[in-house]
Amino acid sequence: MVPARAPSVHLSQEEIQKLRFKPTVGTIQRSEGAEVRFNCSIDINDISQDLNILWFRNGKEIPDGMQTAVYTQGTVTLLSTISIKSVQRADAGEYHCRLSVSNKIIESNPIIIEVEGLPTFTIQPSDVNITRNTPFTLTCEAVGPPNPVTIEWLHKGKRFAEPTESSSTITIEGTNICEAHNEKGLTVSREAHINIKELPDKVSKVTVVKREANKLLISWTPGHDGFSPLSTCYITVRELLEPGSPTAAHPTYVPPFQYEISNLKAMTWYNMSVSCTNEIGPSPPSAWVQSNTTEGGESFTFLEQLSIMQYFFILLVASLGISSELQAKLQDVMIMRDLLSIGKVLGEGEFGSVMEGHLRKPDGTSEKVAVKTMKLDNFSQREIEEFLNEAACMKDFHHPNVIRLLGVCLEVVSGHFPKPMVVLPFMKYGDLHSFLLLSRLSEEPVYLPTQMLLKFMIDIALGMEYLSGRNFLHRDLAARNCMLRDDMSVCVADFGLSKKIYSGDYYRQGRIAKMPVKWIALESLADRVFTVKSDVWAFGVTMWEIATRGMTPYPGVQNHEIYDYLLEGNRLKQPSDCLDELYDIMFSCWSTDPVDRPDFTQVRKRLESLAGKLPAVSSRGDIIYINTSFPEEEEELPGEAAEGPVLTSSPSCSRQTTDTSVVTAEVHESTDAEDDRYVVVISSGDHAPRSAVDAPPLNHRLLQQDSEETVRDLPTKSLETLLFSTKSLLLIKPAFI
């Protein structure tokens, strides 16, 4: 294969055969976050055409090389250098240089980059439900570099086995984790719970929900399944007033947890009891429940005031085995399954996925939605309850800057638990963190004015002000958990860790192993105590993410080092070109004493005051429109080539207010219908250096997510498609660059 961008120059065959790259450095080892530079070079006789050295990593071309040419006594030395400011694991691999001369490919010896850091798990221990005295294994495997990697097992927080080289297996009941150690430090795996299967608990809330002349319909709530799925329940029925009457046992597959007892006598009283079984055996029988059938031809339901639909939902939700409190919260947000159509997967994690969907409305129209589901291959009632609790949190939220719940849907599959699905508004642009990354990851990053960044911060502050006023702690506030609406407003989302405070103003977390440590307040790291002021700390970190357009907080600081780093008085540094007043607001959120931090109302007012000092839109001439059309939305213009916006690398924040930027744009006579089709070019002047800043420059290699973040694949659509809606996005001409 001849690299397309390498022009050819005609040399003699003898000269071509002699062409060789000079010996390379071979193998380079660097610690994660360190700077690395390497190059390759080749001598060529004086030529009249330029040649380009191309770089390849693991066989794929990369655009990172910087080439120079040195002319000495009729010979040209071509030198191409790659410089990585903060090397990450993703940069590791085998690098080659290639040069095309007269259709001959000349390739250098490999340069192997090894990135040393904390161990990375390739296999983590998983939860296991086992029968007593049955052998099982837990496996844990991690890799360097540096190697070797040793594995230590912890049982209920205590080490119980000698370290062994990766990989390692154990067999012991209880809660286990493994630690992977190398010379750089240690990485802790997820917790693995080893549960011994046992008899299920007794069922509860056996209720007769409908009576007829010859039938009784009953429902019940199953007890704990004993770590083994319930398969069958037995309903024991006996006439109440007839001594010696036969006792009948009616088996039924579950779920759902309801059964219609038929072939009964009219106007007769019956005793009923329920027991459910798993692979170990049956649960204890429930207490007897008495009820009677009606006269012939009559029927009576205890839910006559409810619609048939509500009655169906009550039975369906009850079949999940969740708490009665959660059942009551979900009753009025249930959606019929046939109203929801599911499309492609938008994102997927270890325990669930988010899919695109359409929800049919009563008027016949449909709304595009996002559908969150669980992966139910391995699940427990506790996990279902935690999943649905997030939906219950959102049920009562009514604020433009807090994501709203559209409903909960249960997909019933014969012989399986109903599959819970949480239906949310569809956010075309996804989460704020990905938006910020994409705004600067192209070859020419998109300029986001300070006014827009401040608007993002104010929107989040408004949402958090609303939540804190309702005594809710978010506990996982970050740019990744904020969503962008079609109108570019931001709403707070992802309430998987949220808690409502019923007494006092704090919540104590039982364990902190899975918490996002770089967003957690100092007192929460130390004592696992969460308050509204710990959410304020996380908001300060989120502001820093926005100001840096998606950088990972504390670059170069490992997760296990964060607590000591903060305890020594260190905080996130002022981002390059960020307004001093904006950084002062951020910094106030990180006071060591929570009492000294502002509340969300105070933060919001300070941000609004700062935004009010920036230039305002005064005329149509101050508004610039970004091309916001999606390719699939422009089918009516087949003759026009889709052109994306011309992008710039202007900074995300600025502290200078005297110089004026140069703004250029194509000028068209336009109508209102055409206002969403034009693009802008913004080129700013030189920026004054920040002498007090010791944060690194905005470099895309610092964007690698730390271990507490879920690694997400950014969409492959074009940048302009991902960033802007079909409605025009207003940008104010910046007058303070």
From TrEMBL:
One of its GO terms (biological process) is cell migration. The active site is at 476 (proton acceptor). Its main location: membrane. Residues 199-296 form the Fibronectin type-III domain. One of its GO terms (cellular component) is receptor complex. The keyword ATP-binding applies. It catalyses: L-tyrosyl-[protein] + ATP = O-phospho-L-tyrosyl-[protein] + ADP + H(+). SMART domains: FN3, IG, IGc2, TyrKc. Its EC number is 2.7.10.1. Residues 340-610 form the Protein kinase domain. Residues 632-657 are annotated as: Disordered. Residues 647-657 have a biased composition (Polar residues). This is receptor protein-tyrosine kinase. The lineage of its organism: Eukaryota, Metazoa, Chordata, Craniata, Vertebrata.
